[in-house]
Amino acid sequence: GQNIDQPTEMTATEGAIVQINCTYQTSGFNGLFWYQQHAGEAPTFLSYNVLDGLEEKGRFSSFLSRSKGYSYLLLKELQMKDSASYLCAVRRNTGFQKLVFGTGTRLLVSP
Amino acid sequence: DVKVTQSSRYLVKRTGEKVFLECVQDMDHENMFWYRQDPGLGLRLIYFSYDVKMKEKGDIPEGYSVSREKKERFSLILESASTNQTSMYLCASSSPGTGTGANVLTFGAGSRLTVL
Asked: Which helix (H) or strand (E) holds A63?
């Protein structure tokens, strides 16, 4: 089985930097995904890590440490529109490669 | 713009009714999925399909069935709806493989089902 943990909720201020952590315990790890989901909308793909290190995409970066079972999503220069839930998902290399999601972190950005 | 379209955004059904949730994708993806999303529980996989007429149980298949007669269409069926199936249902599709683009899920807008 697998266990994926994320904080339930975080708050931050516009213009600031926030780091959303995700820890996982799984066998056959084969990649970690981050999705963004605005209230009432579908999740949308943000980033993917399969090797250790940092992947940067504009204001968003994602980091992975496979030995520690740990990832984080870093959001810089926060904007009000970044208020959303952020979902961490792990892909397992066991048969069909489906994703297993964490419960998500709700981020509230205030002025 | 690529799309996953779910036929109904909101449904209200009564206990015991048969419910069909339809999902169509226009990306020629092999893989299709049905998830349900509940507060505090996140996204949980109900069923998935990796090819036409193929289906596999996910983590919570009880009370559900699926149908995939055509590559672009994946239907979720609640044979006899119960109140504990009140939820947001999300359909998704992806292409297979092991590279970065593989398994990137494209989701539909969701179907919010209320069972009374």
From this structure: strand A60-65
β-pair type (B10-13, B111-115)? parallel
Around Cβ B65, how many Cβ atoms within 10 Å?
Answer: 14
What is the nearest CA distance from B82 to chain A, expressed in angstroms? 23
Where do we find the tokens 């239907």? B75
**Cβ contact, residue pair B43, A42, below 8 Å:** no
Å between B23 CA and nearest CA of chain A = 14
pLDDT of residue A107: 98
Mapping DSSP to helix (H, G, I), strand (E, B) and coil, where does residue A16 land? Answer: coil
- B48-86: per-residue pLDDT in tens? 999 998 999 999 999 999 999 999 999 999 999 999 999
Pairwise CB contact (< 8 Å): B56 & A96: yes
